[in-house]
Amino acid sequence: MRALGIDPGTATMGWGVVERDGNALRLVDVGALTTPAGMPQPERLLQLYNGLRAIIERLQPDTAAVEELFFGKNVNTALTVGQARGVALLALAQAGIPVCEYKPTAVKQAVAGYGGADKRQMQEMVRLTLGLAMVPRPDDAADALAIAICHAYTAPTLQRFDVS
Fold it and tell me: pTM for the full model?
């Protein structure tokens, strides 16, 4: 199973792809899509969409996972992250890739064994799980890999669906 994890955001959208073979996981690729701060929101969303479509086409994931929106105190941030999530969900649906959504605590539980793990603990568990020399950067990319790892561990075998 090849799983794409996405950590949504409009300034930085982290993504990571892992492949599961039996109980073994390996890193396929990881990165982040970024948009300039001064760019109008519709253009930022289009840039994220196009970037994500290119990643999907290049890496051909079988399944994907997106982090659920966590509502903090900043409503504007929650709204823009929600828009980035929508772009990601649209790109995945158009590609016929089944998607699961995970709460941050579920990702932490699956990857670190503790739903209250902090960012540093999570990054180290991602590094160890995938046998990497260093923690992936930026943080959004490491977070996306954690989502992909969670999904690879917990998702049932999923099949692509027809969007025609």
Answer: 0.90
